[in-house]
Write a structure and sequence with these properties.
539 residues, two-stranded antiparallel sheet, 31 helices
Length: 539
């Protein structure tokens, strides 16, 4: 703001009629106006809330002279109405908490010293400036605040209310020279400690660890917003190797479990932190198979998230169960198979994982891969000893049935058919299903292009070529695979099933209906439903 071209007397006269907020804003306009308005009755009649704005500005911009001037005038620095500049109390206050936080966040060490030398009791119960200094990444400011906070007078050491809840088995010793009442300062020390770890400020972490007063409890970790995560877990999730190494050297346990039972390795596996996982697995004291409170191991979590590199590292570790499963019975192999992660499936099979584990509804990895539309996984599993290609879930549906139900056929977009004509589909299905063998075979050709466009057809083809697969098996409702294909209107699936010459076309496949009768009934119901819809719409 350029200085106004007015005599100082006129500016002072105008200032006499301004509100306190107006005076403060005018003072901050430029340095000349500040010097002009800072003294005499103009400054003295400025309310504390406006003065607070001036000292905050000074703490932000490292203006030691302004801070000292404000302090010597005994400004009401803690006197602030956050909704405006009206008086909220008649009792003046000279608290310096907010100016101190500003100076700490911007790293102005000399101003921090000025404020605390003026009144060290500013940090007697409130050490919010320490997390502010960590957020600003100012190591020197952190050191100064720790030094002053250790000198707060007038109290004696107390036991933390969270003593029984410490993550550390033994709390670091607190010397008489560096005590601070636990229930006052510890929350801010812990906040600063976790923030430093999360942001990877290794030098600040070292200083806080050496200070020894930050003792994170599970309760406090939850309050700090880390989902009851330990400091080790915070470092693992953020991928900060340096912070982890500092904590290990300070005696923290590599297998430390947080409030949810997660070890640092578990969190690294869940977050995809390959370097952290490699570092942790390289330690001799690591237990790579510790499960969380839900019974999930790091390997299971890495599989669920699809982190192949970490899966490989864990499978190469000692004493790791290669067949972990969730409470619903879904195994690590099932997770990667259902996601189509071929490399991970190969790793599990090479490590000796059971290829035919079942979840709580009886689905095998083969069924899950078939239903998700991954031909490469299906082919890989079919070649493994111990796999049942005709396994049935609790609904008695086989992998072949899952491939038909997947809906991954040509002519579908997001599972919905495009450009369909019921009359044409019905006639084509009838042509395929009825008549002599010669007549049926004449219209069966399954084009290679169709096989390429519909992954379900490729999977069905792989399963039908396996002599162990029974394409005429029925599910719990008595429906065969052909019946499912007809009911879903999958013309390509019907064509492929009939062309395999393994389907019994004469038997009744559903509710005493033959395949031909089922086609007629399906499309009769479809036309009836469409006519009712049209009629209702017209009325």
């Amino acid at each position: 703001m350029a200085p106004p071209h007015l005599p100082n007397e006129i500016i002072l006269m105008i200032a006499q009629y301004l509100t306190p907020r107006g005076v403060a804003n005018l003072m901050l306009g430029n340095w000349e106006l500040y010097h002009l308005l800072r003294g005499g009755v103009i400054f003295d009649r400025t309310l504390g809330s406006s003065r607070n704005g001036a000292i905050l500005w000074a703490c932000q911009h490292d203006r030691k002279d302004v801070v000292l001037a404000m302090l010597h005038r005994q400004g009401e620095f803690g006197y602030r109405d956050w909704q405006g500049f009206d008086i909220v109390s008649e009792t003046p206050s000279s608290e310096l908490h907010l100016p101190l936080r500003f100076a700490a966040f911007y790293g102005h060490v000399e101003i921090i010293k000025i404020l605390l030398d003026w009144n060290i009791n500013t940090i007697r119960e409130d050490l919010r400036a320490l997390p502010a200094a960590v957020s600003g990444q100012h190591l020197d400011a952190v050191k100064v605040l720790l030094e002053y906070s250790a000198k707060v007078p007038g109290d004696s050491p107390e036991t933390s209310p969270f003593e029984d809840d410490y993550i550390l088995e033994e709390s670091p010793p607190v010397s008489e020279a560096s005590f601070t009442p636990a229930h006052r300062h510890r929350r801010f020390l812990n906040q600063a400690f976790v923030d430093a770890i999360r942001h990877g400020h290794d030098e600040i972490v070292e200083v806080l660890v050496a200070d020894g007063r930050a003792q994170i409890s599970l309760t406090e970790a939850a309050r700090l917003g880390n989902e009851r995560m330990s400091p080790l877990g915070v470092a693992a999730e953020a991928g900060h190797e340096g912070a982890l190494q500092i904590l290990f050297e300070a005696g923290w346990d590599v297998n430390l479990r947080d409030g949810n039972g997660r070890t640092p390795l578990f969190i690294a596996a869940a977050s995809g932190q390959e370097a952290i996982a490699r570092m942790l697995l390289g330690r001799k004291d690591i237990n790579a198979d510790l499960a969380n409170n839900q019974g999930h191991t790091p390997l299971l979590e890495a599989s669920r998230k699809g982190h192949v590199a970490i899966i490989e590292q864990l499978l190469a570790a000692e004493n790791v169960n290669v067949n972990p499963s969730t409470s619903s019975g879904q195994s690590a192999l099932s997770f990667v198979a259902s996601q189509g992660i071929e490399n991970a499936v190969r790793l599990f099979l090479s490590a000796g994982a059971h290829p035919d584990t079942r979840d709580h509804i009886g689905r095998s990895p083969l069924s899950l891969a078939a239903g998700a539309g991954f031909p490469a996984i299906v082919e890989l599993l079919l070649a493994v000893d111990g796999v049942d290609p005709d396994s049935k879930c609790k609904q008695s549906q086989t992998p072949l049935a899952y491939s038909v139900l997947s809906g991954r056929f040509p002519g579908r977009v997001n599972g919905e058919k495009t450009n369909t004509t019921a009359d044409r589909d019905e006639q084509q299905m009838l042509d395929i299903l009825r008549g002599s063998i010669e007549e049926r075979m004449a219209c069966l050709g399954v084009e290679e292009e169709a096989l390429g466009n519909g992954v379900a057809l490729s999977i069905m083809n792989l399963l039908l070529e396996d002599n162990r697969v029974d394409p005429n098996s029925r599910d719990a409702k008595g429906r065969s695979v052909l019946c499912l294909a007809i009911l879903r209107g999958e013309l390509a699936a019907v064509r492929l099933l009939v062309s395999s010459k393994k389907i019994d076309l004469k038997s009744k496949i559903y509710r005493n209906l033959t395949p031909v009768d089922l086609v007629k009934e399906k499309y009769r119901r479809k036309r009836f439903s469409e006519s009712r819809f049209t009629s209702d719409k017209s009325t």
